[in-house]
Amino acid sequence: MLKQLLTSISAVALLLVGSSANAAMQEPINLDQLLQQLQQGQFEQTEENKQREARFRAEANEQARILRDTIAERDRLEKLSETLETQFERNEIELAEVTDTLTQRMGSLRELLGVLQQVAGDTSSKLQTSFVSVEYPGRSEQLSALAQKMGSSSKLASIAEIESVWLALLQEMTESGKVSKFNTEVTLANGEKANTQVTRVGTFNMVADGRYLELVPGTDTVAELIRQPSGRYLDTVSALENADSNPVKFAMDPTGGSILGLLVQAPDLGERIDQGGTVGYIILALGAIGLIIALERFITLTLMGGKVKRQMKQDQPNDNNPLGRVMAVQRKYPDVDTETLELKLSEAILREVPKIQRNLTFIKIISVVAPLMGLLGTVTGMINTFQAITLFGTGDPKLMAGGISQALVTTVLGLVVAIPMTLLFATLNTRSRHIVHILQEQASGIIAERSERSH
């Protein structure tokens, strides 16, 4: 029992005294040693507790000092906050007063800057479509950046920026009255690019190598017009490029390309004829045939009239002209009576008339048929127009343009063929009648002469 009691006391001693644990585990142990160890452990524990109490008091004093310092800092910051808040309120009041003063003093200036912004934007848009920008690139970008800067912020424009707008306007005005030559890259009609000499006529037109140029939208580059105006305008381009200091004629577009764009869209003669369709080509074929026949008749009657006039001055008949062949009848029948001779001469004249008036009737027929063919084309074109209206309505005039063009072009072609054919027929018919009249006149003279001999 005693041994068990000692073991329990030792266990309690080990739990209470941490520093003497190793000694308690020593074997064997007696009561004196145990008592000594307990007394020594209690002394050490007391010393440790005292040290802990001293550290706690020191830390408590330090925490109190920190707390006092923190409270003092809080009080200082609160006073500073009140001071700054008061200063902030005073600054807001002062800022409002200064802003009102600035607004009052900048009333006219802001209006001026608004006008400047508008002028800079409008000028930038104008310079983007100006031929002068090809020679002096980058002008529109500067003005556009200035307009955006003034619109997106409240900053005032500097004197240099204001002068840049004025200088751009002055340069555009000055260059509009000049004819300038310079080298730049030109996009040709086939898509290739070439560096060539360009002639700029103010702000109106640009030409190169005898052809008109156009400004590519949104860039400072130029390209050849894919479709050029007629030759009489291109001749002025060549004259301008080859000109010296002397004035020359030049077909200038004062709108900067609008009229030229409409001019090149106008169909040429071949396209006009093609609008007439099949009926138009038939009318032109008839006109060409009639013109060939009229030319042949004109040459034949002119030569025949000359031979007849020469025959009238000669007594000896010649077989190379109608009058000579008619006069040969008198010599062929020298002994017949007057009535028989008259019949023979009439027969000879009737024999010559078809040769003199050959193909004139065909020319007259063409002059009558051509306008009728034009009327046929007109009716056909109007039928096509009404069919387009039936299918697509009248919303898009381009759908009806083809039929109307055919209707009008065929009418024009019919009149173009009919009017010259009518004039040619009248001229040739007059010449042939004049020759027939000479034959009849000479035949009457021969009959009169024979009648006088008989009496």
TrEMBL record:
Residues 327-440 form the MotA/TolQ/ExbB proton channel domain. Keywords: Cell membrane, Coiled coil, Membrane, Protein transport, Signal, Transmembrane, Transmembrane helix, Transport. One of its GO terms (cellular component) is plasma membrane. One of its GO terms (biological process) is protein import. The keyword Transmembrane helix applies. Residues 67-94 form a coiled coil. This is MotA/TolQ/ExbB proton channel family protein. It comes from Pseudidiomarina donghaiensis. The lineage of its organism: Bacteria, Pseudomonadati, Pseudomonadota, Gammaproteobacteria, Alteromonadales.
